[in-house]
Every structure is written in C-alpha cells, then in structure tokens.
Amino acid sequence: MTRGTTNPNRLRRMDRWIAATHGSALRRAPFPVAVDLGYGAAPWTAVELLARLRTVAPRARVVGVEIEPARVAAAKPYEREGLTFRHGGFEVPVPERPVLIRAANVLRQYDEAEVAGVWARLCARLAPATGGIGGGFGGGFGGGLLVEGTCDEIGRRHVWVALGPEGPRTVTFATRLGSLDRPSDLAERLPKALIHRNVPGEPVHAFLRDFDRAWAGAAPYASYGARQRWIRAVGDLTADWPVTDGPSRWRQGEVTIAWRALAPRP
Question: Which InterPro entries has this protein been placed in (predicted)?
Fold first, then answer.
C-alpha cells in the first residue's frame, strides 16, 4: 500500500494525453472500460478520469481499484453511473478486459527488477485488438493501453510509459513549461523502469543531455515564451531521436519518444 496522497488535478497532463491519443480506441471499443489502478486515499483521480474520458468517449466507464479495503469503502459514496470502486491489485478485478489501465505513482515503491513482471501482468489484462489488420481497418478496435508513470505532488512534471498488449511503446515527458529551468529537471519524475538508469552510458541519460543542449540552443526563442522555446528544442531533437508526436502535442509541454530509443541497456 502506498501513502495514497492525491491532490485534485494531479494527473491532468496524463489524462489529457490519454484522451487525445487513445480516445478513438475508447469510442470504438465494445466495452470501453478504464481502470484507475491505485487511486489512493481519495477518489479524485478516478472521478476526474471519467470526466475527461467522456469528453472524447461518452460511453466510457471507470473502475477505481485499490489494495486497501478502507480506501474502497471511503470511495463508495462517490460512485455513480459509469464510476465504481473495487478492492484489488495487479490482478485488475474487473470482468471485462480494460481498454485502459492507468497506474500513476504506483510502482515507485517497487524495485526496478519487479517492473517488467508487473508490466507483463497488467498488459495481459488489456483488451486485445479486434477486426482488420492490427485492429486498424474495417471498423476494428485497436486494443488496450497501459499508462504507467510518475509525477510530482501537484502535477507540474510527469513522465510515463505507454504499453500495449505486446509491451512498451513510448515514453512521454510532460511539464508545466513556466516551472521548467531545463528539460533534465524531469529526471526526478522518471518512472521506476528508468529513474535508476539516468547515468552515463544509458540511453535516457543521453536523451536528457541532448534535450538540455537543444533547450540551451533554443534560448533566443525564450523572448517569445517558454512554449516557443520548447517547440524549437523538441524540433531540434527530432534530428537524432525518434519523436513520435508533433507540434500539437509539443504546444502542451509534451514530447513522446519511442521506447526502443530509451530502453535500459541489458
């Protein structure tokens, strides 16, 4: 059990990214169930997740799952249509295969060696792709998504890994740009799979080093605001790193990199 401290709007950056990138999968899914795994001592993150998902997928349902029975009992009064709470853990005790599992600030208390096993267990619970080639054609459904990461107490800085049934796909760095001195400030919020790998010789360390250099090189754009400086810096990064998103997400203070480029070395 974690401390469970949860502030309202703490996960807003992750939620908005999920709605933007995974909303179509939720809309197409026959059972659009999302799980807020380890929501903490208060149910705010599950309540907010439902509200944000329903802006893009009106049939979405959210199940909050907590390992501490007292927290589930405390959340029950907040249940309503589309929102329920259950006792459980990594087994994800819902009858349907979820289209989304969000696990924020859950694995930070685990050892790095345990992460791969937890990822595999959660990914095995995700809804599979259906219809067409890879679920992408003929009205098919593209399958579920696991989003696992870490943020600060008020959600200004956040880093998460997105995984499909096959395993990790991308890493997203998201920040309130006005609070950022340099991109490597996000290192303290790396998820458990990466936080101990921010050392020379590891890909994530090289990425943050290059990001800081690009940020310094984009200093003249600071006169137009931190957003323009970020967009310029990320644009420069694309020459050497597999950035998977574009300016519409960069404007939000985000950048997403293919997992293969940042994966820890054996």
Answer: SAM-dependent_MTases_sf
Contacts of 70 (CB under 8 A, 6+ apart): none
Global confidence as pTM: 0.94
Say how far apart CA 95 and CA 109 lie, in whole Å.
28
CA dist 252 → 90, 124, 213 (Å): 31, 31, 21
Residue closest to 64 by CA, chosen among 82, 107, 52, 53: 82
Pairing of strands 254-258, 167-175: antiparallel
- Asked whether the beta carbons of 86 and 67 are under 8 A apart, the reply is no
* Centroid of chain to Cα 186: 14
What is the C-alpha to C-alpha distance for residues 41 and 242, in angstroms, rounded to an integer? 38
Rounded CA-CA distance 17/101 in Å is 14
- Percent helix / strand / coil, the chain, rounded to 5: 40, 20, 40
Q: Phi and psi of 164, rounded to 5°?
A: -105, -175
Tens-digit pLDDT string for the chain (266 aa) = 555 667 889 999 999 999 999 999 999 999 999 999 999 999 999 999 999 999 999 999 999 999 999 999 999 999 999 999 999 999 999 999 999 999 999 999 899 999 999 999 999 999 998 765 444 434 467 789 999 999 999 999 999 999 999 999 999 999 999 999 999 999 999 999 999 999 999 999 999 999 999 999 999 999 999 999 999 999 999 999 999 999 999 999 999 999 999 999 99
Phi and psi at residue 38, to the nearest 5°: 75, 55
Three-state DSSP state, 157: strand
The amino acid sitting at 78 is Y
